[in-house]
Structure formats: C-alpha cells, structure tokens
Write a structure and sequence with these properties.
- The protein is of the alpha+beta class and 123 residues long.
- It has a domain of 86 residues: 2-Layer Sandwich (hypothetical protein PF0899 fold), CATH 3.30.2320.50.
- Helices cover 25% and strands 37% of the residues.
- The two termini are 25 Å apart.
Amino acid sequence: MHETAIVEGLIRILRDKARENNIGRISVVRLKIGRLRGIDIRQIRGCFELFAEGTLAEGARLDIDEIPVSARCRRCETVWVTQNYRLECPSCQAGDAEIIAGRELYIETFEGERTETSASVED
C-alpha cells in the first residue's frame, strides 16, 4: 500500500514547512492528486487521520482535488479529458497523444495558526 508512504511523506513535509513558518497547528491541507497516480483517495484520508494523530496536523481537514487525465493530440492539437484512459484523439482519431494532466501529486496549500496569529502557507 503506497498510500502509507505517501502520507508519511506528506506529514513530514507539513511538519518541516510549518516549522519554517512558525506554524503551531495546521487546520486545512489541500492536495492535488492526478488519477494516473493510481492512489486510493479513501486510503489517503484514512492514513492521514492516523498519521496526523499527535502531530501539528491532528484534526486538520484534508481537501483533495482529484485531477482527471487530459491529453493533447500531437497531430491536430485537440485537448481533451480522456475517458477510460483512451488516448485516441476525439477529433482526428490519431493515436499520438501527449498526457498533459493526471500525474499530479503535491500539496497545493495548507492553512494553520502561528503561535501569535493565523497564517496561510503555500507550498
């Protein structure tokens, strides 16, 4: 289950970024995850809840934006969201496409509280 390793890394990044910005508690984490990553979003949520216990992210809301797979035809430049990962151009039926979205895996932003004031930190 690679979701566990992903969440361990996520918590580590959040801890480091929070420390750099004097954040004492994280309240919201926003992730971007592309569908080509093959990640089970439910498992990410469950692992996040478990791994956040006892950390500055405990109780934080986890917002996940799942990015669909998009492609661009190299022949006619048509851009489309793929259906069932089919990379045949819907305009010219060419099979030569470049994937332009769907591989994402990153923290878009997180919000937290500084020891003195509230803050929003972008990663």
